[in-house]
Specification:
Blueprint lengths: L20 E2 L3 E3 L9 E3 L5 E6 L8 E9 L7 E8 L4 E9 L6 E5 L4 E5 L11 E8 L8 E6 L2 E7 L13 E6 L12 E8 L20 E8 L2 E3 L22 E3 L6 E6 L12 E8 L7 E8 L2 E4 L3 E2 L5 E8 L11 H5 L2 E6 L1
Antiparallel strand pairs: 1-4, 2-3, 3-14, 4-13, 5-10, 5-14, 6-7, 6-13, 7-8, 8-9, 10-11, 11-12, 15-18, 16-17, 18-24, 19-23, 20-21, 20-22, 20-24
Length: about 350
């Protein structure tokens, strides 16, 4: 999931778009639906690509994103679902803003149309929330694709959805501008508030509807302060050394050489209008020195209880972004609530 709110403006460097890879895409604050940023100014034929790792790969995928196409930059936006390490396109959802403003379902690398909505579903110069769900199979009975616009089903397909996949697991999702040209940041198509789901895990396995993905950075000290702070604001606490957004500042940081050391932080309250939380994504920007293998994992502290996420190995040299999505509160093993998020601390643990 990504709201593109924590990334720098006008930067096409691939790591900044983590966890996406991209060519010809910028993060532009002026194009955001609410505040922060949006992925905008796609060059024709390229866009943003998300490669699913092994635990995320599934025969069913659900994708949602907000889309804005200005009347000054009429184009076709395509969302393609790939298999076989991202090489074979199976299903593409085509948003045709050029003529009929219809939503089309295309199949295979040849983009054969297999279903289309009625005309004038898509609107220019208006944010709309697009969602698609697909089950990949050779069956002519159980395969399906459904596309919704602003929560309303607009086109469906039932039948064989596999075109040429060797392995019936989706492993790449791409959103691209198939026709537009790179131009003024304020008139090119924009994508915001993206989510990608599968059917595993028992929670968040179906359409979510229009969602808002916001970013929060540390705003206070948590229960654990076991890492050592370095930087001009160290007297204010470790949290003040890791609160940069959008660009990480590697001149102030926290560090440790101790296995099992934990640092946790408080975050600001959520807006009053927030009534439901689908998931929390913890993102770190970290690196290491020396040749010893080191790992970090995100942690959550709730009601005084510590829960640990997935460990990731740090590179050397250099920094990398790492993310861990908590679909439910790992302490209670139940879905998040707004109060549960506010009352939680988030941080990391080292090995």
């Amino acid at each position: 999931m990504d709201g593109f709110d924590w990334k720098p403006d006008d930067n096409q460097v691939s790591p900044v778009l983590f966890p996406w890879t991209s060519v010809g895409t910028r993060i532009v604050s002026s194009r955001s639906r609410f505040a922060g940023g949006a992925a905008a100014t796609f060059a024709g034929g390229v866009g943003i690509h998300y490669y699913l790792t092994q635990p995320q790969r599934d025969a069913t995928v659900v994708v949602g994103f907000a889309c804005f196409v200005s009347s000054s930059d009429i184009c076709v936006i395509r969302t393609s679902l790939y298999t076989d390490t991202g090489t074979n396109s199976q299903i593409t959802i085509s948003l045709d803003y050029t003529t009929t403003r219809a939503v089309r379902i295309l199949q295979g690398g040849g983009l054969t149309q297999i279903a289309t909505s009625s005309s004038n579903i898509l609107q220019l110069s208006t944010w709309q929330y697009i969602e698609a769900k697909c089950f990949l199979t050779n069956s002519t009975v159980s395969g399906y694709v459904e596309v919704r616009v602003d929560g309303v089903p607009v086109v469906t397909f039932t039948g064989k959805t596999n075109s040429n996949a060797t392995t019936l697991l989706f492993d790449r999702v791409s959103i691209n501008n198939a026709t537009g040209n790179l131009g003024n940041n304020n008139v090119n198509p924009a994508i915001d508030d993206v989510y990608i789901l599968n059917t595993s895990g028992g929670i968040n396995t179906d359409f979510l509807g229009d969602v808002h993905i916001d970013v929060y950075v540390p705003s206070g000290a948590g229960t654990y302060t076991q890492w050592t702070g370095t930087g001009a604001t160290v007297a204010s606490g470790n949290w003040s050394l890791v609160d940069e957004s959008p660009t990480p500042d590697v001149t102030d940081y926290v560090s440790t050489s101790t296995s099992g050391a934990i640092d946790t932080y408080r975050f600001k309250s959520l807006p009053d209008f927030v009534s439901k939380i689908y998931a929390v994504e913890a993102i770190t920007y970290a690196g290491k020195t020396g040749s010893q293998v080191r790992q970090i994992a995100p942690v959550v502290v709730y009601s005084g209880i510590l829960a640990t996420g997935t460990y990731n190995t740090l590179p050397q040299p250099g920094y990398i972004y790492q993310d861990n999505i908590f679909n439910y509160n790992p302490v209670t093993n139940s879905g998040w609530t707004p109060s549960g998020v506010v009352e939680s601390e988030f941080g990391f643990i080292s090995t």
